Amino acid sequence: MSAKKFRAIDLCYAGMFAALMAIGANITSIAPFLVVGGVPITLQTFFAVLAGAVLGSMLGALSMVAYMLIGLLGAPVFAQFSGGFQTVVSPSFGFILSFIAAAYATGKVIEKRQNLTAYFIAAIIGLVLNYFIGTNWMYAAYKIWAQAPQAFSYKMAWLWMAVPLPKDIILSLFAGWLAHRIRAVSPVIALKR
């Protein structure tokens, strides 16, 4: 298996999506009405899906790895302007990890087929991975080290995630549509077939 070589412009695109993730994580700082029940509603899932759909699996995932590493090194790019290695033990770190998988899976589906239906399917697959990895990490974190109340259950973790789910479904489908339009006008990165 040969390693894929990225051009300098490809790495710039990846950096752009890492920056968009930081903006999407903290959108509530300029739009405080996006806080529902004390939970900040972010645009991270949207940008992770869009990264995979526009950049492809490898470059999309690379952009999410860059975002994660920038935050772990201490830059305040995670939600609520947090950052640093201590984030690894936070209940929300699973979502940060899930963005890598979401971008990769979204890109992988689109590399095989580039019609609008494939973009929508890829976006939903990315969203499902985002919720599956993130919610399971959150549940484990609360039960193992974050000292959740005794009554906190797996079902409660999933019910908690029901609040942002409609927004994330709509935005993921929008990301699929937008990526399809972007690639129709300007194929930024040549996707493998």
From TrEMBL:
- State a GO cellular component annotated for this protein: plasma membrane
The principal localisation class reads membrane
Q: Does the keyword Transport apply?
A: yes
Cellular localization per UniProt: Cell membrane
Record's keyword terms, sorted: Cell membrane, Membrane, Transmembrane, Transmembrane helix, Transport
Name-wise, this protein is Biotin transporter
Transmembrane stretches, start-end: 12-35, 88-106, 118-138, 158-179
Select a single GO molecular function from the record's annotations and give it. biotin transmembrane transporter activity
**Native organism:** Weizmannia acidilactici
In the UniProt record, the gene name given for this protein reads: bioY
The topology of this chain with respect to the membrane is: Multi-pass membrane protein
The family annotation for this protein states: Belongs to the BioY family.
Whether Transmembrane helix counts among this entry's keywords is: yes
| UniProt-listed InterPro entries | BioY
- The superkingdom of the source organism is Bacteria
